[in-house]
Design a protein that fits this description.
transmembrane; methyltransferase; 11 helices; lipid metabolism; three-stranded antiparallel β-sheet; Phopholipid_MeTrfase; membrane; about 375 residues
């Protein structure tokens, strides 16, 4: 009797050596699996390659966009640099009384520097704005009769400070060089030494900040001549007085304004049209005169130093001599017409007369001394 192991081997051997079909199927299945794995690997490789291409393309586009943006920024910086770079062909040179020649730094006009919020402000600017704000508060706080006489007094003080005070300083500078001599003797622009008093150091830093705060990169407080810094310091006083003069006059005009009784509509409209026309004409005269003479002559710079520059007196200067002092006061009479006030008209005439006195006593003698007397017409 055969044992169990023989029986099991007999029954199990056909499973191992069974039909070739099963073997072929197994081979095909193994081959298919290998092909599928290979295809899967190829598919993954293709996808990876495509993803890498897309990633590279994306990075390329980002890099290209960054380079384009950088190029635009660089181009803009170059344009700004070229714009800000000083043009040596337009540099104006100044000459002090002792013969020192220097490049005159550029300055900005008073109204832009004072009223433009984007412009840097100095201590004198804040002081001027504070005083003008106080004037406006007074105008709204005081009743009309008191307001009228208050601003008449403020305007009278401002006008006397302008024609009398500034005129006196300019006369002393023209005849005796008083302002520049004071600056030299007091050494307000000289850097204090280590043993200087604390007040001296504080005043030096204050004046340096005051003069440098509104200047450009072409200005160096310690290298420009004393005459130029003295002129800049004098300008701060001029700005305060001129703005006080103008603002107090306008507020006084508002206090004097009235509507005349029993005036026909024709006279009323004609009065306003004439007043507006004179005011606009006054504005054009001032702007065109400033275009010609610029800050240098506007602030009486030739009392301190001379510019090696030949002025071309065109525009309004071809109409009348000294347009800022003659027809440049047409706005006073235009405002008097619009306000319909004889009081304002009388004050305007008095202020205009004071300005002519300033011209004849201070400016004309200095012009004749500096540039020579005006040419006389040859007699036939």
């Amino acid at each position: 009797m055969k044992n169990d192991s023989q029986i099991r081997s007999r029954h199990s051997s056909p499973a191992v050596t069974d039909s070739p079909v099963l073997v072929a199927d197994a081979a095909v299945q193994t081959t298919g699996t290998a092909t599928g794995v290979k295809a899967s690997l190829l598919s993954k490789s293709k996808r990876r390659l495509l993803n890498n291409k897309e990633l590279l393309a994306k990075k390329y586009l980002q890099r290209k966009a960054a380079l384009v943006q950088k190029g635009r920024k660089l181009k803009k910086e170059i344009q700004i640099s070229n714009y800000l770079k000083p043009d040596t062909s337009k540099v104006t040179y100044g000459r002090t009384p002792d013969g020192t020649v220097f490049a005159v730094p550029t300055t900005e006009d008073m109204v832009t520097a004072l009223l433009d919020p984007s412009k840097p402000k100095s201590f004198s600017d804040y002081l001027t704005l504070t005083i003008l704000t106080f004037y406006v508060i007074l105008y709204f706080a005081l009743p009309n009769p008191i307001c009228k006489w208050t601003f008449l007094g403020i305007y009278a003080v401002s006008r006397i400070a302008y024609n009398g005070g500034l005129g006196f300083l300019l006369y002393q500078q023209s005849v005796h060089k008083a302002l520049t001599r004071w600056a030299e003797q007091s050494m307000v622009f000289s850097k204090p030494g280590p043993n200087a008093s604390s007040f001296k150091k504080w005043s030096y830093d204050l004046i340096k900040r005051e003069l440098s705060s509104k200047m450009g990169s072409d200005y160096d407080f310690e290298s420009v001549p004393l005459e130029y810094n003295t002129w800049l310091l004098y300008r701060r006083v001029v700005d305060l007085i001129l703005m006080s003069d103008f603002t107090s006059y306008m507020l006084f005009a508002f206090c004097c304004a009235s509507i005349p009784e029993n005036q026909s509509m024709t006279l009323h409209v004609g009065r306003w049209l004439a007043g507006i026309s004179l005011f606009i004409f006054n504005l054009w005269v001032k702007l065109d005169a400033h275009r010609v003479v610029k800050d240098y002559a506007w602030y009486w710079g030739d009392f301190f130093f001379l510019e090696d520059l030949e002025l071309c007196f065109d525009g309004v200067f071809e109409l009348v001599p000294h347009p800022m002092y003659s027809v440049g006061y047409a706005g006073y009479y235009g405002i008097s017409l619009m306000a319909a006030s004889y009081t304002l008209l009388a004050v305007s005439i008095a202020a205009h007369a004071m300005q002519f006195a300033f011209l004849f006593i201070v400016e004309n003698p200095h012009i004749a001394k500096t540039y020579g007397p005006p040419p006389t017409k040859a007699k036939n």
